[in-house]
Specification:
Layout: E1 5-13, E2 19-28, H1 29-38, E3 46-50, E4 56-59, E5 74-80, E6 87-93, H2 94-145, H3 161-190
Antiparallel strand pairs: 1-2, 3-4, 3-6, 5-6
């Protein structure tokens, strides 16, 4: 962008529409670019000023061009200045805007994954604890099937169905052990 003066003028009128005069101001393109360079909205973002025709008249970054207005990796925000017809454009990289959001998203994913792992571990532990009496009863039923009637079956303090099953199994094992002992006693007496 070459250095030139930017002019803004406006006519002053009475309420009835008669012209009183014209007020005008000039600013150099270089000074406007300096102002835009000093006022960065964020670390890597910058301003571009477009004229009425859409041509760049001042930039907040030395290597800014019309291609910057179409960048996919940036958000390009435009605000038309109604009085002058100029357009102020802010160009900001998406990673600068969404960087913390993406970091937070990754953190949330890690927290959810750890939570799921902990929950699965807890569920495994609870299921293991819930079926431990059934596993023990299964082993004792196999012992009884093999003829071992004096295995230790403990009574359960649980009041649910598993506790009732274990207590019934205890009663059954005690009854069978008593019958076997009575049969052995009778058998010894008859010899």
């Amino acid at each position: 962008v070459s250095a030139f003066l930017l002019n803004r003028s406006s006519d002053l009128r009475f309420k009835d529409g008669r012209c009183i005069g014209v007020i005008s101001t000039d600013i150099s393109q270089r000074r406007l670019s300096q102002i835009l360079t000093q006022e960065q909205p964020s670390r890597n973002s910058y301003y571009v000023m477009l004229g009425k025709t859409g041509k760049i008249i001042a930039v907040g970054k030395d290597d800014a061009s019309n291609a910057d207005l179409e960048r996919e990796d940036c958000l390009v925000l435009r605000k038309q200045l109604e009085e002058s017809g100029w357009t102020l454009v802010i160009i900001c990289p998406k990673n600068e805007i969404f960087g913390n959001y993406n970091k937070m998203l990754y953190l949330v994913i890690v927290i959810i994954a750890l939570g799921l792992i902990l929950m699965l571990g807890f569920c495994y532990y609870m299921i293991h604890q819930a079926i431990a009496p059934i596993r023990q009863l299964s082993e004792q039923a196999n012992d009884i099937a093999e003829g071992v009637f004096d295995g230790h079956v403990s009574q359960s303090p649980r009041i649910d169905e598993i506790g009732q099953l274990q207590n019934s199994f205890y009663t059954m094992q005690q009854s069978i052990a008593g019958y076997v002992a009575d049969l052995q006693k009778v058998q010894e007496e008859t010899r």
